[in-house]
Design goal:
By secondary structure, the protein is an alpha+beta fold. It has five helices and 15 strands. The strands form four sheets. A seven-stranded mixed sheet has the order 6-7-12-13-14-11-10, with no helix packed on it. The protein has a four-stranded mixed sheet with strand order 1-2-3-4. A two-stranded antiparallel sheet has the order 5-15. The longest helix has 22 residues.
């Protein structure tokens, strides 16, 4: 039986015990409430912080699960034979938990099904969208046709926002710049489009930095932006993920800084 899993599971720190808003678990099985953490050399150097993080994740998951959250740590700095042994032991623990819990088979839920009865979308929602038009249709009751053979606009208004709580808001689907390194090992950004737009999502997703390599004098309209960024899901498919509502914070030397003002957005239903 294949049970549901999540790679890089988002866990919100509702108690704010450490000053951080959230954490990520390397591999998480929701139906088993088991988390797997791969301990690299970096983790060993900050073992104290990792222990606090482990307890915090345990507390958060324990509040929403009837069975206790169990963390399995795999030391990937050991030799090959030891690593294989750890992996085999982990697999056996997972099989044992499956026999104990008897979780339902993995049901792949579509975006339409996931948001059918929801009234808001949150940054903690795992469900993404494979096209811009589908995002608008599912969340905001539009009737946009899929664009075939061409790219959809990344920044636009939706007509049915008029007269609602979203009047004046805009949709934004920025492509993030590709991060690489120059010959000196320093971070280098390559614009994701041939039009020169260069976007970064920084500070744990709370700030978007935008500039255009081909134009240093573009104007901003100051509108609130409902933002979805493209990312790859655990199976390697491109999807758009909601990262919040942003508003222009400042412009400095042709670079615009947008600050997240909301982590949730109310949806428009029929």
């Amino acid at each position: 039986m294949v049970t549901q899993l999540d790679i890089e599971q988002y866990v919100e720190d509702v108690n704010k015990k450490t000053g951080r808003s959230h954490y990520f678990i390397d591999l998480y099985f929701p139906s088993l409430n088991i988390g797997i953490e791969c301990d690299e050399a970096y983790h060993k150097r900050q073992s104290k912080n990792d222990k606090v993080r482990e307890v915090t994740i345990f507390d958060i998951l324990y509040e929403i699960k009837a069975n206790a959250y169990e963390i399995i740590r795999i030391d990937v700095t050991k030799g090959f034979d030891d690593l294989l042994k750890s992996i085999d032991e982990t697999v056996e623990k997972i099989k044992q938990r499956i026999n104990e819990v008897k979780p339902p088979k993995w049901n792949v839920e579509t975006a339409e099904e996931y948001y059918k009865n929801k009234t808001i979308i949150s940054v903690s929602d795992r469900q993404g969208f494979n096209t811009i038009s589908k995002t608008c249709n599912i969340l905001f009751n539009t009737s946009r046709n899929e664009t075939s053979g061409g790219a959809s606009r990344a920044y636009f208004s939706l007509p049915n926002f008029k007269g609602t709580h979203l009047e004046g808001y805009k949709m934004w689907f920025p492509k993030l710049a590709i991060q690489t390194k120059d010959e000196n090992g320093k971070k280098k950004l390559i614009a994701a489009t041939n039009t020169g737009w260069n976007n970064e999502l920084v500070e744990e997703g709370s700030i978007i930095i935008e500039r255009n390599d081909k134009s240093k004098s573009y104007k901003q309209d100051g509108k609130k932006r409902i933002v979805f960024v493209k990312y790859k899901d655990p199976l390697g498919y491109d999807e758009y993920k909601f990262v919040g509502i942003f508003k222009l914070h400042k412009i400095n030397n042709g670079t615009a800084y947008f600050k997240r003002i909301e982590k949730e957005c109310a949806l428009l239903k029929k």
